[in-house]
Amino acid sequence: MEMPLTTKRCVACESEKPLSDFHRRSVSPDGRHYYCKSCRRDMRLKRYEPHRKKPILPDGLRRCGGCMTVKPIAEFANGGRGGCKDCAAARQLKYLYGITVAEYEALLAAQGGQCGICGVGECLSGQRFSVDHDHSCCPKRSCGKCVRGLLCRHCNAALGLFRDSPELLARAQSWLRPNGVMKGPGNED
């Protein structure tokens, strides 16, 4: 009959130690880890040491994990959690519309820095211009090839409310004309 092991040799420090100095590990043949507890602790500390030496930032500042720049918390999306607003916008452009920030800037420059419909130079809400794309090509997320241009929030919302229908927009245009009587459903004369 075999006697149960009471000691084990550590692979790292090569010293013989009691089994209680080794963490349990069910997949090992003897049920214990190869390294003793103190060697495992030293290895963990050595591995995480570079991360521990990061400078502590003053209150109100945070480092963005995307662009690695230090910015005030006000420049971060979600109250300081996640990436900075610039990185969040870049991720959103790529995910929703299939375009990069450079492509967005090129579209904006091609439109003279203004809304493609009303010509306003800056959104009244202070937000970026919306990316307009053909919903018949891509109903939810754009493939990037069906992007039509950039619109202010009001024009983008108006197109959405008219369901991107040229017929509905033409009817609305005739409705707004002075002295123009629109013929339509229930108005047949």
Can you walk through the features of this model?
- With 189 residues, the chain is α+β, with helices and mostly antiparallel strands.
- The protein has a two-stranded antiparallel ribbon. Strands 3-4 form a two-stranded antiparallel sheet. Strands 5-6 form a two-stranded antiparallel ribbon.
- It is built from five helices and eight strands.
- It has three domains: 8-47, no CATH class; 58-97, no CATH class; 100-182, His-Me finger endonuclease fold, CATH 3.40.1800.
- The chain has helices at residues 37-52, 85-97, 101-110, 153-161, 166-176, and strands spanning 7-9, 16-18, 22-24, 32-36, 61-63, 70-72, 130-133, 147-151.
- It is elongated, with a radius of gyration of 32 Å.
- The relative contact order is 0.07.
- The termini are far apart.
- Strand 5 and strand 6 (70-72) form a beta hairpin.
What's the mean pLDDT score? 84
Number of helices: 5
* Share in helix: 25-40%
**Major beta sheet, strand line-up:** 1-2
Q: Structurally, how many domains make up the residues?
A: 3
- What does the oligomeric state look like here? single chain
Q: What CATH architecture of the largest domain do you see?
A: 3-Layer(aba) Sandwich
* Cα shape: elongated
Organism: Actinomadura alba
Pfam families: Endonuclease_7
InterPro entries: Endonuclease_7, Endonuclease_7_sf, His-Me_finger_sf
Protein name: Endonuclease VII domain-containing protein
